[in-house]
Amino acid sequence: MSTTKELWVFAEQRDGKIAGVVNELLSEGQILCEKSGYTLCAVLPSDNGAVLCQELYNFGAKKVYTIDDPKLKDYQNDYYSRAVAQLINEKKPEIVLYGATTIGRSLAPTVAVMVDAGLTADCTQLDFDVEAGNLLQTRPAFGGNIMATIICPDNRPQMATVRSNVFKKTKISENEAGEQVPYAVDLSGVPERMRRLESVHEADNTIDLNAAQFIVSGGRGVGKPENFKIIYDLAAELGAAVGASRATVDAGWISHHHQVGQTGKTVCPVVYVACGISGAIQHLAGMQSSDVIVAVNKDPDAPIFDVADFGLIGDLHEIVPEFQKQIAAAKN
Amino acid sequence: MNIVVCIKQVPDSDKVTIDRETNRLNRAGVPSIINPFDENALEMALQLKDAHGGKVTVISMGPPQAEEALRTALSHGADDAILISDRKFGGADTWATSYTISLAIKKLENVDLVLFGKQAIDGDTAQVGPGVAHFLDIPTLTYAKAIEVTGDTYKVTKVTEDGYEVWDIDKPCALTVVKEANQLRMPSLKKKMAAKKAEIPCWGFDELQPDEEKIGLAGSPTKVSKVFAPPVKLNKEILSGEPAEMVTELIKKLKERNVL
Ligand SMILES: Cc1cc2nc3c(=O)[nH]c(=O)nc-3n(C[C@H](O)[C@H](O)[C@H](O)COP(=O)(O)OP(=O)(O)OC[C@H]3O[C@@H](n4cnc5c(N)ncnc54)[C@H](O)[C@@H]3O)c2cc1C
Ligand SMILES: Nc1ncnc2c1ncn2[C@@H]1O[C@H](COP(=O)(O)O)[C@@H](O)[C@H]1O
């Protein structure tokens, strides 16, 4: 199969704003392109791509394929998958990366079956095997019990999704050069089978666990619903989001939006503070890749200490308010 | 309404451990459960049936023992079950699985809705739903938490990163269902008894007549090249003592790591 030696990043935009994970993927893509010699490109379906290209150049894209159509203004699976699949079939890139967002996790699997590509979900590490020419895609499986490296030896493109905050973004400069390559798709033949009626953003910073740099999480050790106040207070002091274990969500102490773990959200903040959480494997699966993990637990044998960078053995009802107090004091 | 629910039997990840020497999962004696999110898909189907009548068919692809998961689903209220099983389907990744499951659904008549869990907890890939939808050529929405029947279309609420969206989607369609949608009802004793005796047809290669190149290991673009135990944290520091001292020490360390 003859391919173009290109690595593509799907440039997800919402309301004309590029998703943060796109820039993270471009930054990681640069490293992969250095190893592979491929050209780093972005694919941008929208209603007016030209205005968004500069940001993508600044994070390393040398080329941006813009696919403009009023139907591509907002994400719609049928239109987006058709547009991206058509471009892939025509240009045949080696690699396509997507953010594992609610959009990426619909688009990528649809495109994968449309273009006969393998797709590896939620990679936490990417590398390039120069000799074999394969992308090495590493991801946790079985709730984090095991890591697996996946390859796609025979099919191209090789496709992967990556969650937000797994890779660091590094802007090269404010005015990097790049090339916009407009690409036209004809969507008139795609039947209109679904229509978005409403889109609601619930502006509550405490549940935006994906974007948070800091997360303070509470588990059953918090004791009762009212006690979550100390978790919220510390979070407010740190500008943090609030997480929770499933035990507390099931008990009705806090809403499911906050649940971290295998059946909740996967998070990757700079600092994760686990308070009164035992560290069951399903919880670890959702927070293990945080940069720095702080655990507060009165049981020195709690498994959470196995993944913690800093473990504080003691009563969270004393430690958490103290932590908040000292942070507040340091600010003044 | 004819509703199909795809359920996967998965090892209860609570009980899975890894052999640090061989890097293999210790699966012996690990109980199997219905993938937790598939329970939510099943409950959504049962509620639609309660409101609008019709039939709920559960489908599972896997080894013969996946039949157990199907019987459990019947005891919760599903009407029919179909097992997709054949040695030739073994080793399928999500691509080949999507293709194979879609062939089974194509054999069913007048399907109005196909439901999946948000993701399976063994692989956490969340790919099979959209994949099957494409092979069936029906529209799809992921992360559905509520559905309403509105004439020829459905009104579906889907969860997003920071809120939700409401979509109008044509019939038939495929949805993947999130946990917050509902909680699966308890099985009834009567249905449990019936489920034990139910005939569950098994569809294999001969029944589905798949394209040989698209099934099993051969039809799977992704290959596992290596498995290993997750790295253990080195340099961890355990602090104990008076809360105030511990916290002061912690803040100092976090500052040293440039994260505070
Ligand atoms: C299929 C499946 C999926 C699951 N998915 C998830 C998931 O997504 N997320 C998740 O979190 N769980 C999940 N679970 C549940 C998981 O197995 C655990 O049951 C759960 O994480 C336990 O929550 P916990 O740590 O808050 O409670 P516990 O395990 O009860 O731990 C409480 C901890 O608090 C400590 N403690 C008590 N009092 C204090 C105090 N005063 N000060 C300090 N420490 C104190 C105790 O020492 C203990 O370690 C899942 C389970 C299954 C089977
Ligand atoms: N082998 C299978 N048999 C039946 N349904 C499956 C199978 N694999 C996946 N599914 C369905 O697809 C969903 C997503 O699975 P996955 O893409 O593996 O995360 C699951 O929640 C199930 O509804």
CATH C-level name of chain B:
Alpha Beta
Q: Which overall shape of chain A is indicated by the principal axes computed on the Cα atoms?
A: elongated
What is the CATH architecture annotation of chain B? 3-Layer(aba) Sandwich
CATH superfamily of chain B: HUPs
Query: Which series of helices and strands of chain B comes N to C?
Result: EEEEEHEHEHEHEEEEHEHEEH
Relative strand content of chain B:
25-35%
- The CATH H-level superfamily of the largest domain in chain A is HUPs
Largest sheet of chain B: 9 strands, mixed
As for the CATH topology of chain B, it is Rossmann fold
Principal-axes geometry of chain B comes out as: globular
Assign the structural class of chain B, choosing from mainly alpha, mainly beta, alpha/beta, alpha+beta, or little secondary structure. Answer: alpha/beta
Terminal Cα separation of chain B, in Å? 56 Å
Radius of gyration of chain B: 22 Å
Distance between the termini of chain A: 63 Å
Which pair of protein chains has the largest interface, and what are the residue counts?
A-B, 83 and 83 residues
The unreliable regions of chain A are none
Bound heterogens, unique = flavin-adenine dinucleotide, adenosine monophosphate
